[in-house]
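User: Run a structure prediction on this.
Assistant: Running it now.
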Amino acid sequence: MEALTRILAKSPGSALLVLSVCLVILACVVAIQGARLRAVRTRFGELLTGSRGENLERILIDQLRERAAMEQHVETLERRVRTLEAKVEHSKRHVGVVRYDAFGEATGMQSFALAVTDDHGDGAVVTSLLGRADCRVYCKALVGGRSERPLSVEEQEAIEAARAGETGALVR
């Protein structure tokens, strides 16, 4: 501090000139910062006002409400999908058909074995045997793709076709 006092005492004009230059530089910096601040305030004001004169806070609150409503809707849909998936698992949607001639006198592949099962192989196999004089229909329950009653070759083929997801009728 003493050194500064000695310099000012020896040449007060030089010190005044240096201080004046520093003052001008500081004034320029303040002016530039003021201009930047005005520009930021203008942009911030536009942001808060919005493009249609809406308040940014109002827009954000509305968006948050809409998002909460959408999340609730998605949760509802997810619950419904889980319920439907559980129902589909037990729906009888696998079908296998085998057409054949059961008796030599009746031709044209009019007899058939039809298997209808769910994902676990539970369901039924229906067999229709067409003869010249009569038609017989049999139904056997299936649990896990198996029946308590003996299955014919055609019934087993129909069950396998249903399990494999083959479409159309197999003809023997």
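The CA atoms of residues 128 and 137 lie 4 Å apart.
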